[in-house]
Amino acid sequence: MMPHAKKWLLFILLFGCVVFTRANAATNSLVWQTAGDNVSADIRGEALWPLLTDIAHQTGWHIFVEPGIDAKADVKFSNLATGAALKKLLGDLNFAYVPKTNEADQLYVFATTIRAATQRVNVAATNKIGIAKHVANELILKMKPGTDIDALAKALGAKVIGRDDKLGIYRLQFDNAAAADAALGQLKSNSDVATVEYNYILDPPVAAQRIANAPAGPVSLTLNPPGDSGKVIVGLIDTPVQSLGADLDKFLLKPISIAGDANVSSTDPTHATSMAETILRAMAAQGGGTSAQILPVDVYGNSETATTWNVALGVQAAVNGGATVLNMSLGGTSESAILNDVIQQAEAKGIVIFAAAGNQPVATPTYPAADSGVIAVAATQGNQLASYSNYGSFIAIALPGASVVYLGSSAFVVQGTSPATAYATGIAAGAKSNTSQTWLQILATMQQKFPVPQK
């Protein structure tokens, strides 16, 4: 299906390994060295849920909490063992640490009995300076039917700044991070709330790099009428997309913007432009033209990053726009139950979803790639896994991690699991538009043709 795959691979992008600590505010820090059983903290007034989220991230533990309990940590200590550190951090709350042999260790935090600790703490990501990657003063919620979200927001001192009543999801803005943290604990025990979480920030996309001597020319592809099996539309959940030129713009449907109108004035291709052209290049490599088209959905706007709120709305917008397959060359290490729910609804309609596995050489799951049913794509270099690519059991297939793209007469290369994902999407969409195969048949063939190399 992809005879020129090796020609598309140009460079290897190497990433160093860095260990970060966390600082929620100017004076707040927590450093948990599990290898040496050594914990240091300088924390002033941090709410329970953000604290436990940080502990879960640094230790890898599965942490369960009794719903409705709340506390604040106000401690400073250095070089304590795990048990002593937990006693200081959790104060009057009870806890039970349960080490495991073949799975993650567990921590139960409760006020009454250990059996009451049933609510799982999701693991948040960290950015380059270690701060949990979420919008500090926002929460997103999924409400149960019949709930008055406006009244609830007013009672919490929050504003509803985003809503999708059909999905029952809402975005709340608070005056500050402390107010959002306090509300998180309250809402987790509210019977009208199905899900509440931070509005997580996804990793910035990798930029394309200009090259002087491109090993591949511009994409040449013919737009064919749709076949009997119906029109294939690729929902490209990404940044703003630029013009691909007169010959390729006919493959782009009218863009949808979730994050507001974007001002794109760069002479370099945006990430979405690179992904769109990579998808079309994968289709062109199959020969014979295609009837598939791309529906660009901008979830970034003028920002360098996207949030799980915007991505969830972007997925739904693509579904509403008729997308039959989604390309999500984006991600982060924060698991979002609300985004996952929207994705599951899309999959239930028969929509196939490809997502990038991540550009760090670790086995840590990247989301939404690791969500159930999503096809996670790693990057290869020749017959090996690319040195920068994530690996692990959540990954389904692996494709070349570099693509040549053009903006005007200038050539660029984009590298990472993002173009690998776009290749996968283009191959699948091209096969679906040109053959009578089902998605299951196409995906089964791709898993055989593009297996994940051993790390």
Main attributes of the structure:
single chain, 455 residues, alpha/beta, Rossmann fold, Phage tail protein beta-alpha-beta fold, 3 domains, disordered N terminus
* Cα distance spanning the termini: 24 Å
> In the CATH hierarchy, what is the class of the largest domain?
Alpha Beta
Radius of gyration: 23 Å
CATH topology of the largest domain: Rossmann fold
**How many domains in all?**
3
Mean pLDDT across every amino acid position: 87
Instruction: Name the helicity range.
Output: 25-40%
- Work out the helix count: 11
The structural class is alpha/beta
Regions with little confidence, pLDDT below 50 for 5+ residues: 1-27, 124-132
| Strand-residue proportion | 25-35%
CATH superfamily of the largest domain: Peptidase S8/S53 domain
The largest β sheet comes out as: 8 strands, mixed
How many beta strands in the DSSP annotation? 22
